[in-house]
């Protein structure tokens, strides 16, 4: 009875489930990028960090048999990528956007190089929490099978939102991001703050990568990321550098990404490939709608080169 | 009477008077990018060598294979030149907007759309229109498609304040989805089973090879585009205005320059070059539009443009060099058992080091032209 009743309700359910499944990497990368951008620096290399994190997590999980160790290894690798980016960018005349593109290429290259031998083996997956025990329908049960990292991401968004406002570290980060001179006047070393913020951003982006390879889609291959790391940068602008906004925007992106497969499952195949473009079109429309040529974006850190 | 090119009288006549001959200050000014650039490449190669040593292989063998595979024989030189052709055009897609201070990284989308537009244009023409006319129309269609795509990023930047790096990238992903939709849908050749493509071009409609070489005409088109761009930037008022606008938008507007038109014009021209790369890929290499169009030429073009410091003439040797590195990838894979991503690691390393070395410009007194001014 229940199985038959689901019918057309399968579409919103699939979008809901897809939103939760697809959004997790976006949550982590965008929260990481928020920390980095709040300090006044932009890291476009997170796409490379994400893919390298995915590879590291998968490789370590295959070797040690523990997905948790895989995630920890990815965090370390991501932090190292962030440190390299942050260190290079502190020199004068170095363009942080261009270095980001270079780091992206380097990260992708290194991940493909070192990950070549891990395409075949199968790694143990990250655990998920089942919230659907009350329902009889297997679809609903599957949809409510939610990975621990999703909850961790949600908690992190709340924590960062609170932390930016109410902690000393949050204040230092915001001061550095808004004015390098003001930070120096306060006796803060802006370069060091940005270095650490970039490293934190890289570490979080690598967790997003670990989720990709260890949970969904749950395998390592060279096409594992279709630009999630880069889209997260757009997502941060859309979310106005607000961690809770990032979380909600990531859910929206996930839902848009799940639209195509959901419609296909109920027999709508017309324009299938165009649905793949839905998250990108959505981002672009939102960027156009919220940008202005005359004033800087509301909530944007003053020292951020992206919005100058 | 005809004057022969190697006529000694002509050589003397064209030689500049001694007083105008470049002095040490001229050399000092031009030596800086050469020396710093070369040093950056050497440092990059050294770091890459350490990486190769760390994975237990010999860097010497690798560099030797890279030379053999890229430039060691006439065959490999031709292979490198063929691979350089699209890079010339996609690098221009980055270098031209860079004059205005814009970082455009979505060239891949313009390549893909250019290829689809060229294929769509060719289908009704095939068998009816003369070959040359068809090729010209295909090129125009590709340039219009690519130009609109990147021009849109420029338009959004100036009139809506949307960051061009992000928007061009999003547009690039949208373009790839559009291509998949066209190639799988309305333009699909039913005969293409595993790899969906458009109907193949008839053989006589293909862009042939340069006489005497195994390199298609795309190389000439690309080199010409670089020369035209160089003239545009260095010798026209548009190029001059673009440099002013790139330096300071406010100052340019106060001077009465139409900054908006400049930005849209430059980005559209840049995109049309990348679109042309897509047309060449369809008409000279693939023979139809398919997913192979998104082969990463747009992204390697970013590297070429930055290596050439956005100078269109310098793009020519850099594109050939990277074409050669690209071409040697297969040989390294076969002979040394290294993954094909080795080339990507090398490119990434070089890219990072070269951008890092921007910090050394103006740091060394020896390159200061004033130091070498003659006391005349």
From TrEMBL, chain A:
Membrane spanning stretches: 6-32, 69-88, 97-119, 139-164, 193-214, 246-266, 272-290
Any one GO MF annotation of this record: transmembrane transporter activity
Pfam families assigned to the protein according to its UniProt record, in alphabetical order: BPD_transp_2 (PF02653)
Q: Which residues form a coiled coil?
A: none
Q: Where in the cell is it found?
A: Cell membrane
Q: Which UniProt keywords are given for this protein, alphabetically ordered?
A: Cell membrane, Membrane, Transmembrane, Transmembrane helix
The UniProt record lists the keyword Transmembrane: yes
**Main localization of the protein described in the UniProt heading:** membrane
Q: Which GO terms describe its cellular component?
A: plasma membrane
Query: What topology does the record note for this protein and the membrane?
Result: Multi-pass membrane protein
> Any idea what this protein is called?
Nucleoside ABC transporter membrane protein
The organism is: Rhizobium azibense
> What lineage does UniProt assign to this protein's organism?
Bacteria, Pseudomonadati, Pseudomonadota, Alphaproteobacteria, Hyphomicrobiales
Automatic annotation (TrEMBL), chain B:
A Pfam family assignment: BPD_transp_2
UniProt name for this protein = Nucleoside ABC transporter membrane protein
State whether keyword RNA-binding applies.
no
Predominant place of localization: membrane
Which species is this record about? Rhizobium azibense
Question: Where do transmembrane segments lie in this chain?
Answer: 35-56, 84-102, 109-126, 132-153, 165-183, 215-241, 262-285, 291-308, 313-332, 344-364
Subcellular location(s): the record lists: Cell membrane
Q: Which GO terms describe its cellular component?
A: plasma membrane
Cite the GO molecular-function annotations of the record: transmembrane transporter activity
Keyword Thylakoid in annotation: no
Q: What keywords is this UniProt entry annotated with?
A: Cell membrane, Membrane, Transmembrane, Transmembrane helix
Classification of source organism: Bacteria, Pseudomonadati, Pseudomonadota, Alphaproteobacteria, Hyphomicrobiales
Which InterPro entries does this entry report, sorted A to Z?
Answer: ABC_transp_permease
Topology term for the membrane: Multi-pass membrane protein
Which superkingdom is the protein from? Answer: Bacteria
Q: Which PANTHER family match?
A: ABC TRANSPORTER, PERMEASE PROTEIN, GUANOSINE ABC TRANSPORTER PERMEASE PROTEIN NUPP
């Amino acid at each position: 009875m229940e199985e038959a009743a689901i019918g057309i309700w399968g579409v919103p359910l699939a979008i809901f489930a897809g939103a939760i499944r697809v959004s997790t990497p976006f949550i982590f990368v965008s929260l990481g990028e928020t920390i980095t951008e709040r300090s006044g620096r932009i890291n476009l290399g997170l796409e490379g960090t994400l893919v390298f994190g995915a590879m590291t997590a998968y490789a370590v999980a295959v070797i040690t048999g523990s997905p948790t160790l895989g995630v920890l290894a990815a965090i370390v690798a991501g932090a190292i990528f962030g440190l390299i980016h942050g260190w290079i960018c502190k020199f004068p005349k170095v363009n942080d956007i261009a270095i980001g593109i270079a780091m992206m290429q380097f990260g992708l290259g290194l991940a493909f190089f070192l990950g070549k031998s891990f395409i075949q083996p199968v790694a143990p997956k990250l655990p998920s929490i089942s919230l659907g025990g009350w329902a009889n329908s297997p679809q609903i049960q599957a949809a409510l099978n939610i990975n621990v990292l999703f909850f961790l991401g949600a908690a992190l968004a709340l924590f960062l939102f609170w932390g930016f406002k109410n902690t000393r570290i949050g204040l230092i980060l915001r001061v550095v991001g808004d004015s390098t001179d003001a930070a120096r006047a306060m006796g803060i070393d802006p370069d060091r703050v940005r270095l650490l913020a970039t490293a934190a951003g890289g570490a979080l982006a690598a967790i997003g990568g670990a989720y990709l390879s260890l949970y969904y889609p749950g395998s390592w291959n060279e096409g594992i990321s279709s630009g999630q790391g880069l889209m997260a940068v757009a997502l941060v602008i859309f979310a106005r550098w607000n961690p809770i906004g990032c979380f909600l925007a990531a859910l929206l992106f996930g839902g848009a990404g799940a639209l195509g497969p959901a419609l296909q499952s109920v027999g709508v195949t017309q324009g299938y490939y165009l649905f793949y473009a839905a998250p990108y079109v959505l981002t672009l429309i939102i960027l156009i709608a919220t940008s202005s040529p005359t004033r800087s974006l509301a909530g944007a850190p003053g020292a951020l080169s992206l919005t100058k | 009477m005809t004057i022969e090119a190697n006529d000694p009288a002509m050589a003397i006549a064209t030689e500049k008077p001694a007083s105008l001959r470049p002095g040490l200050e001229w050399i000092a000014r031009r030596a800086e990018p050469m020396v710093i650039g070369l040093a950056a490449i050497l440092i990059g190669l050294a770091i890459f060598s350490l990486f190769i040593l760390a994975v237990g292989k010999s860097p010497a063998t690798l560099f030797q294979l890279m030379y053999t595979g890229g430039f060691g024989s006439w065959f490999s030189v031709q292979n490198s030149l063929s691979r350089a052709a699209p890079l010339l055009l996609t690098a221009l897609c980055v270098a031209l907007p860079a004059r205005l201070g814009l970082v455009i990284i979505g060239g891949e989308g313009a390549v893909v759309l250019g290829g689809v537009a060229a294929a769509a244009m060719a289908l009704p023409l095939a068998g009816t229109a003369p070959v040359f006319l068809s090729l010209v129309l295909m090129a125009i269609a590709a340039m219009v498609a690519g130009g609109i795509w990147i021009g849109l990023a420029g338009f959004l930047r100036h009139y809506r304040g949307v960051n061009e790096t992000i928007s061009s990238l999003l547009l690039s992903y949208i373009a790839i989805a559009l291509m998949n939709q066209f190639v799988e849908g309305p333009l699909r050749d039913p005969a293409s089973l595993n790899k969906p493509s458009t109907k193949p071009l008839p053989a006589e409609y293909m862009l042939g090879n340069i006489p005497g070489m195994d390199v298609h005409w795309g190389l000439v088109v690309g080199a010409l585009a670089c020369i035209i761009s160089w003239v545009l930037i260095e010798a026209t008022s548009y190029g001059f205005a673009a440099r002013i606008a790139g330096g300071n938008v406010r100052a340019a507007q106060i001077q009465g320059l139409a900054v908006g038109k400049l930005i849209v014009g430059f980005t559209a021209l840049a995109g049309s070059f990348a679109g042309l790369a897509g047309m060449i890929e369809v008409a000279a290499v693939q023979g139809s539009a398919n997913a192979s169009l998104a082969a990463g030429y747009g992204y390697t073009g970013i590297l070429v443009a930055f290596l050439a410091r956005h100078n269109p003439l310098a793009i020519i040797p850099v594109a050939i060099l990277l074409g050669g590195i690209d071409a040697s990838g297969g040989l390294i894979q076969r002979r040394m058992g290294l993954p094909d991503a080795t080339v990507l690691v090398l490119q990434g390393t070089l890219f990072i080091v070269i951008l890092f070395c921007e910090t050394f410009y103006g740091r060394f007194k020896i390159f200061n032209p004033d130091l070498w001014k003659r006391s005349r």
